[in-house]
Amino acid sequence: MTQPSLAHATDYGRMYSRAIGSSPEVPSITTVISQEHKDLTGWAGHMATAELSGDQRLAGAVGSPAELKRLAREASSAAERFRDAAAARGDRVHNYAEQVALEALGVGQEAGAARRVLAEHREASYADRFDEWWQLYGVVPLAAEVTVWNHTQGYAGTLDLIAEIGGRTCIIDFKTKGLTRDGRAKPLSDSVVMQLVAGMQAEEMLLDARTGQWGPWPYGEDPILLAVAVSEAEVVPSQANPAVLKSHWHKFWALRQVWEHSRSAQAAGTALRPISPPPLPRPPGGVPGE
């Protein structure tokens, strides 16, 4: 997947600048959404336990505290390794989706190469299912990997795809998903609605990153917001319910204030500082012997 040229990793999360070489100014949409805390300790513990219990070296380590400790230490990073592998797979699938769109727009010729990369990782079925969805829904791309900016609220982001489907303009976000036990794509998180509605509320879109040229955002008038789950077994598109868009926009706005508070607090230093006791009061009449 093409990395947004104006995105930067900072101490305050991913941020965007207005042009190549300029300083980052506002947080990304995903950085804002990440301000909502999600407790994953249970999942991390499950992943570590599952890996340790399935380790063929476990039986031989019984009776050796040092060996058991080593295996437990390796298993403790199972969740992190799973997350990193899923992120890498997601990048490969997103890149294929982007290249398909760019070829359809007449500005790219890399879809075949992107498919070969998936095949090298035994992930060609993701491309197969994506192609089936693309044809079935008659997707007509208008723009791919579009960087957008909202000055009023102060954020930016990059949208996967703007396309026309069934005569309607759609803002689309792709999510690569694993499979449930019954072989279906895992469900999407509701937080994707915040991501989509924040994109819809953009005010500008990037025209040229090198010169920092921006233009008005033309796709914010009543688009369909689609979250598309791409798995190796199926592609499941879901429309954001128009009735919930306002509440998700309000939540995004609130999380944007949380990000601003966190940045300001971090820049100001520690919130609490120890202080010494006040000096003892002088006794009445002064000190004896003066």
TrEMBL record:
Residues 275-290 have a biased composition (Pro residues). Residues 268-290 are annotated as: Disordered. This is Cytochrome. The lineage of its organism: Bacteria, Bacillati, Actinomycetota, Actinomycetes, Micrococcales.
